[in-house]
Known about the structure:
- By secondary structure, this protein is of the alpha/beta class.
- It is built from 13 helices and 23 strands.
- The chain has helices at 37-47, 83-93, 100-119, 153-166, 246-253, 286-290, 316-330, 344-350, 352-360, 416-438, 461-470, 478-489, 507-528, and strands spanning 25-27, 30-33, 53-56, 73-74, 134-135, 145-146, 174-177, 180-187, 199-206, 214-219, 222-225, 236-237, 258-259, 264-271, 279-280, 294-296, 335-338, 370-379, 382-384, 396-398, 403-404, 550-556, 562-569.
- The strands form 6 sheets. A 5-stranded parallel sheet has the order 7-3-2-11-20, covered by helices on one side.
- β22 (550-556) and β23 form a beta hairpin.
- α2 packs across α3, α3 packs across α10 and α12 (478-489) runs antiparallel to α13 (507-528).
Amino acid sequence: MSATGVPRGAARLATRLAAPAPGWTAQADVVVVGSGIAGLTAALRLRTRVPRVLLVTKDVLASGSTVWAQGGIAAALDPEDSPEAHLTDTLVAGAGLCDPRAVEVLVTEGPARVRELVALGANFDTDDDGSISLTREGGHGADRIAHAGGDATGAEISRALVAQLEAVRADPGIEVIEHALVLDLLTAAPDAEGRPGPVCGVTLHVIGEGSRDGVGAALGRAVVLATGGIGQVFQSSTNPAQATGDGLAAALRAGAAVADVEFVQFHPTVLWLGAGAKGQLPLVSEAVRGEGAILLDTDGVRFMPDVHPLAELAPRDVVAHAIVRQMARTGEDHVLLDARHLGPDFLRERFPTIHERLLAEGIDLTTGLVPVAPAQHYHSGGVVTDLRGRADVDGLYAAGEVACTGVHGANRLASNSLLEGLVFAHRAAQDITERVADGDLPQREPVERPGEPGLVAGAARSRIQRIAQNGPGVIRTGAGLEAALDALAAVPTRAHEQPGVVAAPQTAEWETTNLHAVATVLSAAALERAESRGGHYRQDFPERDPHWRRRVVVRLRPDGAVKVEAGALLPEPGEPAVPAPV
């Protein structure tokens, strides 16, 4: 790291994408980007509270990452449980980097938000007395995980929220644009130091569907990013194909701070389909281990009881690292999940989706061992927000996986992600409502950001994914991260102007440019954090270091240079809270 905070070898990233000028313009009070639990919640809350809402989604309404959530949603709904106990478990999993204020908001407001989902039509699994049935997952000290359809919780929540939105599609106060990739955040006039001004809309490309197509501009008083994760930056992930880090990259280009980006959660038990498997891979939910399934190595040895007191129910980072070490000992590239002792009838009823998915691959969960290995699953970092969902660029909000609220710290506690999207989208919508009513969010005029636009060839995607897998993957080293930064810096970022390179402003190139930006800031932050903690494991610094009980914050300078800074020490649990660095 240089004295300026710019990593040596780091690529200089573009502050805007190369794209055609917008051919049409839409106007709204609020533009919501994304249709997972956070985006749908924000849009539905805002619909009757501001004059006009525009919801933009990259595919169809029901296509976000929420649909794929098998495990459940965590909340202290049992009278014998408490928000305080949920807070304690979350802080432990977060390995000292949670913002206690954000966690307190999550656990105290969470139960009410889940009950509101029920009122909106979400059908959770229930006990004989009609109460929501609650189970336990890794890292939780109580039964507080609500499920729907056994292992189809995200799909049911998405169904209920989409149904609510579909019911009001004819309302002139809301418009939905599907099949639309948001390219850049529009910003107003820069400040005296050249930093972008307030966010005042987005540019987007609609992929030939509906009444609009091509590149357009959607202006708004505020923009809510709810674009999900970064999974496709890696060679294998449980994330859908749309998870190309678009929101995080757009926020960076608009001058927003991102933090905790080095904390990538690799799900311990993703179905192993061979060394060449790529793209979205099916996960075998943590809930299977929650019900008693155990992990064996390829010699039949159960290894987790010697690693952690909670054995297979240890936090995900502990389990993932243990699996990687066990694979190294045996020389294999997978381990085995054994649920046979739970009984075929129970497994078919409790995990119908997983059971059917495994059968499609020729594996019977009820009678056979399931080959699994860690793969990218969840990103704990993102756009830095306060407790109201505000980013540090006025007019910009973020909620869900794209945001860094401080809830997850170094490692997300199982089933807290859906709850975070729900709670903080609700808060962001409330804050926007109040600010619009007070006249605190005027519509500003966008200006073109200075600097040359960037574009990475779509053909470079597999190269970028390989760099990310080998650099900021499950096991990291300083040398590997430096090599990753050098390799990423060597990727042409103005490919559309480079002779002989086949690249044009279009979806594949825009997504690949976003993946390149995400891989760069991820590698830079992981290099800066010289310790191991939560979802960040450095083989050359294998221990946790109290000095690093702080956020690593990344932003782009006006010239596109990547700037990495370490924030102030975060409080230990029980200490007075201090403002999170932004």
